[in-house]
Amino acid sequence: MTAAAAGDSPVDATKGDHVNDGEQFYWCQRHERVEEAGHTCPERDLLGPYPSGDEARNWKQRRDEREDRWKAQDDAWEGE
Questions:
Q1: Please, are residues 15 and 36 in contact by the beta-carbon 8 Å criterion?
Q2: How far is CA 48 from the centre of its chain?
Q3: Does an H or E element contain 15, and which?
Q4: I need a labelling partner for 65 at 20 to 30 A (CA). Which of 41, 55, 56, 59 fits?
């Protein structure tokens, strides 16, 4: 059984939670999992690269924080 069929991430759990020496991680939108560079789905399904598995896993939180910050800036802008 493949990792995708089993629902397991191809990333070693010990590697997904910290920054590794030059390793890159991606978030697979199709399988909703962290994938390590060199063991990924097609690029069209990926977000990244991220420096750690945690950052890849939390991509949505970072996007939401950025959107909130931009909205607050837009709301505060008084125009020209």
A1: yes
A2: 6
A3: none
A4: 41
Kindly report the average pLDDT of the chain as a whole number. 80
Tokens of 68: 């909130």
Residue among 75, 70, 6, 2 nearest 39 (CA): 2
Tens of pLDDT along 4-18?
Answer: 433 444 444 444 444
CA 23 to chain centre: 14
Question: pLDDT at residue 2 above 80?
Answer: no
DSSP 19: B
Q: How confident is the model at residue 53 (pLDDT cuts 50, 70, 90)?
A: very high
- 63: its two tokens: 């996007």
The owner of tokens 């759990």 is 13
Residue 28, classified by CB atoms within 10 Å of its CB into exposed (0-12), middle (13-18) or buried (19+), is buried
